Amino acid sequence: MSNGPLLRLNGLTKRYPGVTALDDITLELPAGRIGLVGANGAGKSTLFRILLGLSHPTEGHVEVCGIDVARDPIGVRSRLGYMPEHDCLALDQTAADVVATFGELSGLPARAARQRASDILDLVGLDEARFRPIGGFSTGMRQRTKLAQALVGDPVLVLLDEPTAGLDPIGREEMLLLVDRLGSFGISVLMATHLLDDVQQVCDHVVMIDAGRLVVSGATDSLLERTGLVTIDVGRHTDELVAGLAQVGVVAVVVDGMVEATVEATVGDDTRMDLLRDVVAGLGLPLFRLSTRLTSLDEAFVRRSEELT
Hints:
- With 309 residues, the chain is an alpha/beta fold.
- It folds into two domains: 7-220, P-loop containing nucleotide triphosphate hydrolases (Rossmann fold); 226-295, Alpha-Beta Plaits, CATH 3.30.70.980.
- 36% of the residues lie in helices and 28% in strands.
- The protein has helices spanning 44-51, 73-77, 95-105, 110-123, 139-151, 169-182, 196-202, 220-223, 238-247, 271-282, 297-308; strands spanning 7-16, 19-29, 33-37, 59-64, 67-68, 80-83, 157-161, 188-193, 205-210, 213-219, 226-233, 251-255, 258-262, 289-294.
- The strands form three sheets. A six-stranded mixed beta sheet has the order 6-7-8-3-9-10, with helices on both faces.
């Protein structure tokens, strides 16, 4: 594997008759867990097809692990795992058979593929169900089987297309925990989703696209900015604190049993936070919590998209 970026896109453009699916995207992405965010039709699936060598750019080029996809698509695919969004599993086959078959297709001998399939199905929580036909699986179990077949070839990078689609809240959390664990096995992730909460929960890096255009790319933490809203928990003494803050010119209200105060949000300046703390101390109130709220990725996406229009 190259020591350079995990992915490098240079002027990537893909046009179809009457529509531009990807519009002059240039970026470099590091190894790790990357969230590819955009609404349906934003260009996520088109990018996946290009990375897999199944579609060719109209302009520009793409490198995966330092390998030019156009020049060596087979070499690139040998380093990739792919979990598609749509149903693609043979329902009359067992999970063990399906995953082992993909292991053999990746180049493993039959016996090694069987053992590898068993290990991966255990990893995704399907050890006891691996000999059952997939037709009897729940949606969550089918999603786990698709993840297992994407991992069985020991990829450098796994492409996950809407991995939490159709899952209930518990199944969604379990899938995200699995995605989060992949980094500990040295596997990078590119997760396409329209659910920003999923990305905020498990991804180190975010790429936001809208109508084929790059909105923003950066570390997740760098896109989460502090607002001017501070939450203060003083137990039952909320009204007393609101009155005390009003005396020093700070607007505050009680929300769900805690005080929310609006202050100027200046990066690196804790003066206003110190003022809130001093008011609490001056009133002799207990202080259980004092924290600023971060913007969500939803807010960052909307703001950056508006800046492009």
